[in-house]
Amino acid sequence: MIETANPDLSIGKQCRLLSISRSSFYYRPKGETALNLALMRQIDKQFVETPFFGVRQMTWHLRNEGHPVNEKRIRRLMRLMSLMPIYQKPNTSKAAKGHKTYPYLLRGLRVDRPGQVWAADITYLPMRRGFLYLVAIMDWHTRKVLAWRISNTLEASFCVEALNEAIHKFGPPEIMNTDQGSQFTSFA
C-alpha cells in the first residue's frame, strides 16, 4: 500500500497514515540460518524413520550425532516443520475373551426423559509418566454427568464405584449403554 515514489507523501508520512511503524516497512525477514536448515533436514530424515520421536528423543538423537542443541530449539524447529510425534495411545475399548456381549438396544429409540438411557465410557488422560483413566456416566436426555472416577489402572473396580454412585444418587436407568470394553462386560 505504500508508494515509494510518491512525490507528495514521504514514506514516513504514509506509514503514519497506515498506523504502522517505518521500521516495519523496511524490515526484511532473514529466514533460518544455514545451521538450522541443516538441522531441519536431519530432523526430517530421522522423523521419517522414527515418527514416534518427540522433542526430547529428537534432541537426544541430534546430540548423539554431535550437534550441540537444546530442547527449546528443537521444539521450535519441529513446530515450524509441523511435526507431531505419533505415539501409541491406550486402547480402552477392547472386549475380553469369555465376557458376555450385550445387544444394542438404542437403534430407533427415542430418548425423551431422564433416567431412560445412561452411557458410560472410559478415556485416558496423558500425564508426564503414563496415563490416568477417567470413567464418566452420563444421562443421554439431560447430558448431565451423573458420576465419574479416575484411576491409574484399567481394572473394573473404578467403573463399578462410579456406577454405584450414580445409581445411589439417581436410581437405576432403564438402559445402560457402553462400548462393551472389558471393564463394562466383566463379572463385576
Polypeptide structure, described:
With 188 residues, the chain is α+β, with helices and mostly antiparallel strands. It has 2 domains: 11-80, no CATH class; 88-188, 2-Layer Sandwich (Nucleotidyltransferase, domain 5). Helices cover 35% and strands 16% of the residues. It is built from 7 helices and 4 strands. It has a 4-stranded mixed beta sheet with strand order 3-2-1-4. Strand 2 (130-139) and strand 3 form a beta hairpin. The termini are far apart.
**What pattern of helices and strands is seen along the backbone?**
HHHHHEEEHEH
Poorly predicted runs are none
> Approximately how much beta-strand content do the residues carry?
15-25%
What is the straight-line distance between the termini?
71 Å
Largest sheet: 4 strands, mixed
CATH-defined architecture of the largest domain: 2-Layer Sandwich
Q: Give the structural class.
A: alpha+beta
CATH-defined topology of the largest domain = Nucleotidyltransferase, domain 5
Helix content: 25-40%
**CATH domain class of the largest domain:** Alpha Beta
Shape: elongated
Q: Mean pLDDT, as a whole number?
A: 89
What are the key terms here?
single chain; 188 residues; alpha+beta; Nucleotidyltransferase, domain 5; 2 domains
Give me the secondary-structure topology.
Layout: H1 11-17, H2 22-26, H3 34-49, H4 55-64, H5 71-80, E1 117-127, E2 130-139, E3 145-151, H6 157-170, E4 175-177, H7 182-185
Parallel strand pairs: 1-4
Antiparallel strand pairs: 1-2, 2-3
